[in-house]
Amino acid sequence: MIHDDLDKGREIAARVEAFVRETIIPYEKDTRADAHGPTEELVAEMRDKAREAGLLTPHIGADGSHLSHRATALVLQASGVSPLGPVALNVMAPDEGNIYMLGRVANEAQKARFLAPLVAGTARSAFFMTEPAADGGAGADPSMIQTTAVQDGDHWVINGRKAFITGAVGAKVGIIMARTDAGDGKVAATMFLVDLPDPAIQLERVLDTIDSSMPGGHSILKIENLRVPADQILGEPHQGFKYAQVRLSPARLTHCMRWLGSCRRAHEIASAYAVKRQAFGKPLIDHEGVGFMLADNLIELKQAELMIDWCAGVLDTGVLGTAESSMAKVAVSEALFRIADRCVQVLGGTGVSGDTVVEQIFREVRAFRIYDGPTEVHKWSLAKKIKRETLAAPH
After folding, report:
1. Are 173 and 112 within 8 A, CB to CB?
2. pLDDT profile of the chain (395 residues), mean per 10
3. Which of 148, 249, 285, 395 is 20 to 30 Å from 137 at the Cα level?
């Protein structure tokens, strides 16, 4: 059940932002937040505090109901005031997107086993879709999926390799996407729910990446003869590509929400610096080269907010909104990168140091331009839509 309640969203968002600023921002210097993300110990400690404040998984009610996408946008933007905020509040990727998909596709038994601990914040999850480029596997093009699942009685046997799997280290719930044969000669995929860790899923390595906000980092893993009972198929067999869109369209938008909050924080820091820092006889902000950058930030922050709200409104109508989420992903991720880049520039040497959180926000937003579909793939998809609709239109 989704209810449209912007007033409720505003109330929760205000509480979330106060909590993140007062309780979570001090953790940004904690040594338990390392290059591969916050450790399990730190995650548990922050979530305990969010739970005590009544703010864990705040967009989902005790009865399982969700705030509307528009109201959720307010909450997730507030959580993003710190890169650690979404993790602390249990609204970070990949869990937030996995929770959303399981809530819409999983059966009741699967919800009790796999979804409930995710909502409670006592377990993390991983979404096993992307594969190593060296294997010719699926990346931006999921139809290239190489991992296979073959039925063997009342089980399925999965083999393959997966790459850039966020949060796999330390996760308790896995959603594995594998190629299956529907008998019609077309490429099909099926999603499987698995308990983690499993000896048939072997960690090859955790990648060193420029972003560092997600627990468990991003891993390459080998799946070798993993046996999964048929009752752990998510939804229907051979419908994995459809379910991926159920997950990815809203997930692209929730990424936009969280990182908009972070870029607002970066802009705050850069603005405060520009007002106080003197150069050539006056504050930096009084130099047009700096003041205009901050003005551009203000404009693009508002544009990003409006784009998110528009796309969220489309999703709230019940329309999948693939094209809309692609437009939002491109517009917002590119705008936020420009904003973060300007903040680094305004701060000068301080901007490339760890003295403020701005350099991390810059790194995180740079990665955001790639994950959940790089800008170029979304533009290509939109161009195909333009061609299709133009050719179908009367002339």
Report:
1. no
2. 76 98 97 95 98 97 92 98 98 96 97 97 98 93 94 98 98 98 93 98 98 97 98 97 90 96 98 97 97 98 98 90 92 98 98 98 97 94 96 88
3. 249
234 vs 122: CA distance, rounded Å: 21
Contacts 24+ apart (CB under 8 A), 202-208: 203/168, 203/169, 204/161, 206/36, 206/169, 207/163, 207/164, 208/35
**Same domain, residue pair 340 and 268:** yes
Which pLDDT belongs to residue 4?
52
The rounded distance, in Å, linking the Cα atoms of 171 and 162 is 15
Q: Find how far residue 87's CA is from the centre of its chain.
A: 11
Number of C-beta neighbours around residue 178 at 10 A: 27
Q: Within 13 A of 371's CA, how many CA atoms are on the CB side?
A: 26
> What is 21-54 written as a DSSP string?
IIIIGGGGG-TTEETTEE-HHHHHHHHHHHHHTT
Domain range enclosing 45:
2-92
CA–CA distance, 182 with 187 (Å, rounded to integer)? 8
From residue 289, give the alpha-carbon distance in Å to each of 112, 245, 285, 292, 371.
56, 43, 8, 6, 32
Q: Are 61 and 119 in contact (CB under 8 A)?
A: no
Task: Of 194, 174, 172, 192, give the one whose Cα is nearest residue 235.
Answer: 192
Last residue of a domain, one of 49, 71, 92: 92
263 and 331 share a domain?
yes
Please tell me whether the overall predicted TM-score, pTM, comes out greater than 0.90 for this model: yes
Give the whole-angstrom CA distance, residue 261 versus residue 281. Answer: 33
* CATH number of the domain where residue 191 is located: 2.40.110.10
Any idea what DSSP says for residue 114? I
Is 71 found in the same domain as 203?
Answer: no
